[in-house]
Amino acid sequence: MVDFLIGLFLASLITALFTTRLYRLLLWYSMNSLMLGFLALFIGKELNDTSMLITGIATILIKAVGIPYFFKRMSLKFHFVRQIIPEIKVQYAIILIPAILVFTFYLADPITHMMRGNANYVAISISSLFLSLLLMMEHRNVAPKIIGFLSMENALFLLGITATDGMPMLVELGIFFDLLMAIVVINLLFHKEEASL
Amino acid sequence: MMLTLLLLPALIMFIVSFFKNKKAKFLLPVSSFAILLPIIKLFTLPKPYAILNSYLIADELDTYILLVSSIVGIGVTLALLTLDRHVKVSPRAYSRFYRFFAIFWIGLIFSILANHMGIYWIGLELATLSTVYMIKTNHTPAAHKEAWNYMIVGAIAISLVLFGIILMYASAKPILGEDAMQFDLLLQHAKEIPSPFLFEMGFAIATVGMFVKMGFFPMNLWLANIERASFYPVAALFSGILESAVIIGFFRFSKVAAEVNYTHLFMFVFVYTLLTIFIVSFLIFRAKDFMRLFSLSGIEHMALIALFWVSGGTFAALLHFGAHAFLKPALFLSTGVLESKGKYRIAGALRGYSGKKGTLFWLLVSLFLLAIISLPPSPMFFSELYGFGAMIENAKESDHMLAMIGAVLLLLILLSVIFYRFVSIYQSMKYEGETYSKKVYASELFALVLFALALMALLLPESMAYLRSIV
Prior knowledge:
The complex is a heterodimer. By secondary structure, chain A is mainly alpha-helical. Chain A has one domain. Chain A contains 8 helices and no strands. By secondary structure, chain B is mainly alpha-helical. Chain B has one domain. In chain B, a hairpin with a 3-residue loop joins strand 1 (49-52) and strand 2 (56-58). The mean pLDDT of chain B is 89.
């Protein structure tokens, strides 16, 4: 089940890279976060780790539901451009994405021998990080760049869950708090009410 | 209690930022001075002193960096009093600037005192995010673009740091459990880490994140562009406080990495910093305005600090760090005054200041400009001497003595390029261009005097002895 969820996590991120509509991108981000939340719940249940279970629930509530909803409202309020065409053409992206995946598996190869259990998940986390960076790079508009940044947070979270069997609760809560702060700052950046002095 | 006292000035600043009364801003420098009391108390307490269980611990290094950052914070609050006299800023944006400055300060206090990698990261992220709005206080399209730029690149850098932290934590978790997040325990058990490769990979990723945040290769112009676009106090905060919090993280991570494999650590940092200084020296040579010049020079100095630190020159690195933390904000704050009558005008920038205040201002700026290029008796002159000495000492224990002498010579050539550029700019500021009357205000002058005094205090034998005691 964990393998299945992690596959969906990666698949939703790859699909997001080809998306040309903002709301569809939000949907894929929401799916990505939902898979992450389920992963945390499954692994947390396996390890009998209450803090990871709480993290999983918080991930689903905040990242899979809260942030996409808030982002959609923000896009309506500030009239975001909803057609987001990636700068990298599809034919090149199709070559680039598997290349990133192969490279990260190769990069993580020495690490995977040192990890107990879930070894390939580290490679997937690193590839998710690179794919999120790609998402940020391939768009000129700010909105998909923000989604790329949020996806990068998801990749970090995945690494935290899989490589370390869960980070300390304090750190995870801190990351959530920072994420919310990031949203507040992004909201402020969009505000144009102070544009005229 | 100690934590409350340390956070109190920032909390007061946060609350006062909501006041509508224009005179309320005068409370802020007064309250910022209050942070010195708990810090002085910290100096007298036995170290390490637990401020918040094992999460926040004050040792000699923390206390020193906290003191330096607080003095910079005080200087910036003083200079902020006259921000609206030099630049166009709305009262609302002004209040918000203070509000985010307070959040920034809180984040940095946590980062500096953190004995926990997670708390260190959370503090740094809080400070990074709060800076975004401070950049945006300047309502120009360039500042708006750079605020987004900072948000995105800053987020990538900080994410790399977290990525590295997670890998380092994963490497030590089998022996330390959840305590693998604590710097002190990690240092004690560094040699027992079961997967050193994992730790080193984490360290390398986190270090790249921290170096990117400080504007090292390949992001050399990133910080310079942001500091150019934002108001001058932002640049002062970056160079004096934010970089302090980043570099303390590097100090702590590298101490552990040195225990794991010193050769790998040294080679990695040595190549990275040398490459950075190589590129930055030529960028400085081509710099055409104050902000970019000082910003690029900041990158050069941070690279030197990292290099001295990993070479075993702890004292040199800390002395250099302290001197840079006082000099660079002083120069950035001076830039606000120098540029208030026409941006980008270097020729004659130091002319036209009359009266006692004016004379003192140009004299101080001249001294700061010459001190930043390590002209004696600047503390940077001594720190560079000790730093290069440490590099040679380090090479004596290896088989790479000739290579190290070559590297030191290359560094000296690059530093000469920077020296030449600064002297040329100083001469242009003082002896070229037209003279017209300019004004300097008491509060910003007071900030500069504060930095000058702090700089002199660094050269006191007691200060030197304290820095030598930090290992």
